Amino acid sequence: MTDLFSGRLAILGLGYIGLPTAAALATRGVEVIGVDINEDIVAAVAQGKVPFTEPDLAVAVSGAVAMGRLSAVSETPEADAYIIAVPTPFNEDRTANLSYVKAAAEQVAPKLKRGAIVILESTSPPGTTEQVSRWIGALRPDLRMPHDSDGVAEIHVAHCPERVLPGRIMIEIITNDRVVGGVTPRCAERAASIYRVFAQGEILLTDAASAEMAKLVENAYRDVNIAFANELSMISEALHLDIWEVIRLANRHPRVEILKPGPGVGGHCIPVDPWFIIAAAPESARLLRAARAVNDDKPHHVARQVIAKAARFNSPTIACLGLTFKANVDDIRESPAVEVVELIAKGLPETAVIAVDPYTDRLPPALAGYSNLRMERAIEAVEQADIVVLLVEHDQFKTLGRTRLGGKVVYDTRGAWT
Ligand code: SAJ
């Protein structure tokens, strides 16, 4: 199959996935209408501006808007294809919250014309894409939907999970292979015609539930492997071994590739997605549950270690370098670094704690209420500190220089200075 989509396409959700996808399609000639419930985001995108930081995205969005290929609105328009790229957070009980997906399906339903394509990109538990087909079908009994059509469905519904890495989205959105899972094989083919417009990687056609599970498995794989590294780092600390040296040596085996330990696992994907699998098969998912427990405990472990080191000083100052969930991004959602800083500030209310992050100049809300906590620039913070805790390996921190750290207790959770 080599057909390419041409027509009008609406993307619901102009976030980290929807907006780059919109830009990738629009800059290749597709008429794209971005839809978001947040009026500020709609206003920004309509003017060619990007409401968050991601390398190369701003130029793609401003170019697409200037070319007249990309617009932004708050009401779902009529279109030939729809991509749903809304958040799927988890509920209190860690089951998937599909309310945004359902709301998107309900907005799309009244606009659908025969032959339209509906793609769910949001990370979702197995069965969700078929559920989208059902939700639409309930509102549009006049249409033959793929989940219950024996013959040829009139609407094509598929799942194409996003797989791009924040910080490299504009590269990976083009170069990564894409998994396209249709409610029927025909649905997968129709959906693939959209991704062929911009994807240079291979397009792998499958069924919707396998595509949903594959996406969850990718992030769960990562979570388990990071948990292994984090557990090893705690074991090495107890044995007074240098974990970075141990990993460096072990990774010289041709079939060993241990990931990097850190202060925990953050972001809105890897700590969340394994729970969708655990909820689907609670009895069997023992390793996934254990990995989550190890990674969730890591910020507490780091904070306990720092508090123990502080006990050796008389009123020490602690500098914590990094607040974002990983290096060289400005995203602090689900950041283990923020959790560590909060645990230290709370655990040592009489101790001065200085937080540093070149990507944000304000303390996040979780840290705003601590009178012993302030923000400063890296050099000033390190200068005043007795204890320096490296929580995020931003490039700016890597080049701080050993001389500045001389005579201080250094706790490098990322191996940035080894
Ligand atoms: N981390 C470690 N050690 C490592 C690697 C990562 O501690 O060796 C930590 C990071 O510091 C961060 C967290 O894990 O706190 C996650 O970071 P990440 O860079 O591994 O992944 P994300 O969350 O930015 O993006 C992931 C990616 N998934 C995989 O690599 C399998 C991305 O491709 C997905 O599109 C994204 O989740 C998503 O949206 O699902």
Task: Write a concise synopsis of the structure shown.
This protein is α/β, with parallel strands linked by helices and 418 residues long. 40% of the residues lie in helices and 14% in strands. Ligand SAJ binds at residues 123, 162-166, 218-219, 222, 226, 259-260, 262, 265-267, 269-270, 325-326.
Strand content: 5-15%
CATH architecture of the largest domain: 3-Layer(aba) Sandwich
Bound molecules: ligand SAJ
Structural class: alpha/beta
Walk across the major sheet and give the strand order: 3-2-1-4-5-6-7-8
Can you summarize the main beta sheet? 8 strands, mixed
**Given this structure, which CATH class of the largest domain is correct?**
Alpha Beta
Q: In which range does the helix fraction lie? A: 25-40%
- Overall form: elongated
Mean pLDDT: 96
Listing every helix as H and every strand as E from the N terminus to the C terminus, the arrangement reads EHEHHEEHEHEHEHEHHHHEHEEHEHHE
- Euclidean distance between termini CA atoms: 50 Å
Number of separate helices: 15
Computed CA radius of gyration, to the nearest angstrom: 24 Å
Low-pLDDT runs: none
CATH topology of the largest domain: Rossmann fold
